[in-house]
């Protein structure tokens, strides 16, 4: 079979090897024979297959990384829970000791109920003391030379402000007294761990979750 150029260098005529066969034509670009279409498709498929393999490898690495992170987080959580349990154990023992020592002191005072009654009285006295201090301070101001030097109009204005403040404090005093009395009502004569954490302003369920 012989190859014969026809016209310019863009077409190459391939002679038939057998009588009666049609010669085939190969396209030439700048003297180079173009690859057949099937070879290009095959090459693209190989490239696509390689990309898919790389994607699968990347996905595998991501899965393994996520699994590793999950294991680390679980171990951290286990360690944290272990620390919490140790803290609770120490806190429970400490509170139990405090409860025991406090009960001994309270019993000498006549029992827990008597102790709470005294606490109620003390808190009510604190509220009364706040109101008394205000009255004393305002009384001293009204008798001061500074107040005397004010004009009658200014004096009346100050008196109105003091009376308004006195009214607000009186309302606040009654409100606090009711809240405290409600807090101390229905108190048993047993000093429990719940009562201890309440006095210490600690969340009981945080230390005794069950």
UniProtKB/TrEMBL annotation:
GO terms for cellular component: condensed nuclear chromosome; Swi5-Sfr1 complex. Its main location: nucleus. Residues 1-32 are annotated as: Disordered. The keyword DNA repair applies. It comes from the Eukaryota. The keyword Protein biosynthesis does not apply. GO terms for biological process: meiotic DNA recombinase assembly; reciprocal meiotic recombination. Residues 41-75 form a coiled coil. Keywords: Coiled coil, DNA damage, DNA repair, Nucleus. It is found in: Nucleus. InterPro entries: SFR1/Mei5. Belongs to the SFR1/MEI5 family. This is Meiosis protein 5. It comes from Candida glabrata (strain ATCC 2001 / BCRC 20586 / JCM 3761 / NBRC 0622 / NRRL Y-65 / CBS 138). The lineage of its organism: Eukaryota, Fungi, Dikarya, Ascomycota, Saccharomycotina.
């Amino acid at each position: 079979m012989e190859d014969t150029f026809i016209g310019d260098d863009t077409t190459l005529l391939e002679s038939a090897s057998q009588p009666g066969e049609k010669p085939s034509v190969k396209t030439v670009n700048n003297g180079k024979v173009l690859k057949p279409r099937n070879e290009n498709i095959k090459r693209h498929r190989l490239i696509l297959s390689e990309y898919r393999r790389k994607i699968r490898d990347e996905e595998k690495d991501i899965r393994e990384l996520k699994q590793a992170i999950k294991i680390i987080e679980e171990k951290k959580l286990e360690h944290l829970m272990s620390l919490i349990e140790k803290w609770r154990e120490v806190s429970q023992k400490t509170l139990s000791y405090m409860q025991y020592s406090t009960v001994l002191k309270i019993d000498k005072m006549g029992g827990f109920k008597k102790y709470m009654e005294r606490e109620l009285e003390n808190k009510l006295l604190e509220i009364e003391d706040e109101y008394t201090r205000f009255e004393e301070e305002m009384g001293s101001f009204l008798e001061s030379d500074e107040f005397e030097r004010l004009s009658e109009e200014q004096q009346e204005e100050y008196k109105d402000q003091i009376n308004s403040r006195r009214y607000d404090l009186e309302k606040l005093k009654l409100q606090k007294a009711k809240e405290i009395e409600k807090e101390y009502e229905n108190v048993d004569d047993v000093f429990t761990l719940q009562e201890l954490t309440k006095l210490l302003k600690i969340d009981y369920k945080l230390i005794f979750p069950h």
